[in-house]
Automatic annotation (TrEMBL):
<comment type="similarity">
    <text>Belongs to the peptidase C14A family.</text>
</comment>
<dbReference type="InterPro" id="IPR052039">
    <property type="entry name" value="Caspase-related_regulators"/>
</dbReference>
<dbReference type="InterPro" id="IPR011600">
    <property type="entry name" value="Pept_C14_caspase"/>
</dbReference>
<dbReference type="GO" id="GO:0004197">
    <property type="term" value="F:cysteine-type endopeptidase activity"/>
</dbReference>
<dbReference type="InterPro" id="IPR002138">
    <property type="entry name" value="Pept_C14_p10"/>
</dbReference>
<feature type="domain" description="Caspase family p20">
    <location>
        <begin position="310"/>
        <end position="443"/>
    </location>
</feature>
<dbReference type="InterPro" id="IPR029030">
    <property type="entry name" value="Caspase-like_dom_sf"/>
</dbReference>
<dbReference type="InterPro" id="IPR056260">
    <property type="entry name" value="Dredd_2nd"/>
</dbReference>
<dbReference type="GO" id="GO:0006508">
    <property type="term" value="P:proteolysis"/>
</dbReference>
<dbReference type="InterPro" id="IPR001309">
    <property type="entry name" value="Pept_C14_p20"/>
</dbReference>
<dbReference type="Pfam" id="PF23725">
    <property type="entry name" value="Dredd_N"/>
</dbReference>
<dbReference type="InterPro" id="IPR056259">
    <property type="entry name" value="Dredd_N"/>
</dbReference>
<dbReference type="Pfam" id="PF23724">
    <property type="entry name" value="Dredd_2nd"/>
</dbReference>
<protein>
    <recommendedName>
        <fullName>Caspase family p20 domain-containing protein</fullName>
    </recommendedName>
</protein>
<feature type="domain" description="Caspase family p10">
    <location>
        <begin position="465"/>
        <end position="543"/>
    </location>
</feature>
<dbReference type="InterPro" id="IPR015917">
    <property type="entry name" value="Pept_C14A"/>
</dbReference>
<dbReference type="Pfam" id="PF00656">
    <property type="entry name" value="Peptidase_C14"/>
</dbReference>
Length: 545
């Protein structure tokens, strides 16, 4: 047995730092997130580094097909080796075993079975070199469904980081490790040292306990019990203090339950009434750890399910006051002719939209006078909050030019960019309605074709399914607005939606709106709204109050 272990160590020591470049070529973004978490999560400073690295990397994630993405190597493993020059080999090999990167390990000359027997990747509370709580938290990330992870992220952020969670700008709940890193850098949780002195995961244990996720709670409790009593098991003779772990277990966890021997028997999936609206396929973690994107799994029944109590948010961005951005970085994006300081009549549209959609059960979120960056952030934040909602409505009332809408600072945002933000996995398979009241007459200084090309690199075409866009005017024309009664388009939309909501779906209602607005004339002025759709079902609103 001793020679067997020495043979393994010889092969580990034979790994050269230059090999790591080729290792990363075979790792996809999902695997790099997991490795980054397991390797860099020990210290707050390194956690902050890898957190920012992963957020940047998601813009052009590697595919793990033996070559680099457009941005080249992520350099996550090589950087780790340079700052851990004596221990990087054993830590990287164990981390690769924990995430089951069998292809990479075979290329490095290892047998999967022998590494499995040494590192026991299926048992959360047993570790060799990797920090025990990092392994336990990774296993929890692996076992929770996307819906469960999303609800936990939203609840933890709302409870402990109400004013700071918006700064993360990461919305994919399929990568829970990113949110765990964020919580570690903000002291929501602490993993302590290798023997768990200084560890504090009370917030997670309490959440699991309150939400009947006993198997997840047990993973943390068993890890604390195992490692605080025996220390790091490869140094079982060390005398370590049990005080911190004992306090955690006694105050929040109660008695530890017997640990699970195989991960296949404990997916950690606990379904409740909120989960029942999601398909069974989406409720369980997929074999490769990625959310499903294949459109063949879509349930093609006649209409979307939109329950009044879970209808969703209606986000209304109302730009009534304008100024010119002074940052020289954006000078070339300012309109040639400055906008008037005030958009009279827009507050009427805002109030009508709020009253209309509130009557169908939508939760109104009204935001006045946002800059171009604030607009994108607020839309992304609302999408993030919509995980357990049935749909989303975004209304933008502002100035515009062809293909763009404007922030209150007179800087444009591509409409394609807004659609890309709304096309997140959070709302996969759910209807999304984008309503835009803005002129589309002149050519904008922003190249919207470039923005669209960049977005297409990040998303598969089916990500844009189930979206309905309604715009007040076709390209090259103005959107007419009365200074006292509001815009023609929004006035007609609110009137006809209220009239036909119980008998027609949104596509038919908007067809009526286009016809109604097209009939109107004012001093030889004419207006024609337009809509585009990728809806795959009929979009009926819930019964009004």
């Amino acid at each position: 047995m001793g020679s067997y272990r020495r043979n393994i160590m010889e092969r580990i020591n034979d790994i050269d730092i230059d090999d790591l470049e080729y290792v990363e070529r075979d790792l996809c973004f999902y695997e790099l997130v997991s490795l980054g978490f397991l390797l860099y999560g020990r210290e707050k400073t390194t956690s902050e580094y890898i957190l920012q690295k992963l957020i940047v990397l998601q813009q052009n994630p590697p595919k793990g097909k033996g070559n680099f993405g457009l941005a080249g190597s992520s350099d996550i493993l090589r950087k780790y080796a340079t700052i851990n020059n004596t221990t990087w080999r054993v830590n990287i090999v164990e981390a690769l075993a924990i995430i089951r990167a069998k292809k990479v390990l075979r290329k490095l000359g290892f047998s999967w079975q022998e590494l499995h027997d040494i590192y026991l990747p299926h048992i959360p509370e047993v570790n060799v070199y990797i920090h025990p709580l990092l392994k336990a938290l990774y296993k929890i990330s692996e076992r929770l469904s996307i819906a469960q992870a999303g609800r936990m992220v939203i609840k933890i952020n709302e409870t402990y980081l109400r004013h700071e969670s918006q700064n993360l700008r990461f919305y994919d709940y399929g990568h829970l490790e990113v949110f765990l890193l964020f919580w570690m850098t903000r002291d929501v949780i602490a993993i302590g040292n290798q023997n768990l002195q200084g560890a504090d995961v009370l917030n997670l244990i309490s959440y699991f306990k309150q939400n009947d996720l006993d198997s997840m709670k047990a993973v943390l409790v068993d890890t604390i019990n195992h490692n605080s009593v025996h220390g790091n098991y490869r140094r079982a003779t060390n005398n370590t203090s049990n005080t911190v772990a004992d306090n955690v277990v006694q105050s929040a966890a109660g008695n530890a339950v017997g640990r699970q021997e195989t991960e296949d028997k404990d997916s950690g999936a606990v379904m409740d009434s909120r989960d029942m609206s999601l398909s069974a396929e989406h409720m369980q973690p997929q074999p490769n750890g990625f959310p499903r994107t294949d459109h063949e799994d879509f349930d093609c029944t006649e209409r979307y399910v939109i329950r009044k109590q879970q209808a969703g948010y209606v986000l209304i961005i109302n730009q009534s006051k304008f100024y010119e951005e002074t940052n020289p970085e954006f000078k070339n994006l300012l309109p040639k002719i400055p906008f008037k300081p005030y958009r009279a009549g827009t507050d009427v549209d805002r109030d009508n939209l709020k009253a209309l959609f509130s009557s169908f059960g939508y939760t109104p979120l009204v935001r006045d006078n946002l800059t171009h960056e604030e607009m994108q952030h607020v839309i992304g934040q609302t999408v993030q909050k919509s995980l357990i909602r049935d749909s989303l409505i975004v209304c933008i009332l502002t100035h515009g030019m062809e293909g763009v809408v404007y922030g209150c600072n007179s800087i444009p945002v591509s409409i394609n960019t807004i659609k890309a933000i709304m096309a997140e996995d959070t709302l996969k398979g759910k209807p999304k309605l984008l309503i835009i009241q803005a002129c589309q007459k002149n050519i904008a200084p922003l190249d919207t074709s470039v923005s669209n090309a960049e977005n297409q690199l990040e998303k598969q075409p089916d990500a844009y399914a189930d979206m309905l866009t309604a715009m007040s005017s076709i390209a090259g024309t103005e959107a007419l607005r009365h200074t006292m009664t509001g815009s023609w388009f929004i006035e007609s939309l609110c009137k006809l939606t209220a009239k036909w909501c119980t008998r027609k779906h949104m596509l038919d209602i908007l067809t009526n709106v286009i016809a109604d607005v097209a009939k109107r004339h004012d001093k030889n002025e004419y207006m024609l709204p337009i809509m585009s759709t990728t809806l795959r079902k009929d979009f009926f609103l819930p019964p009004p109050t």
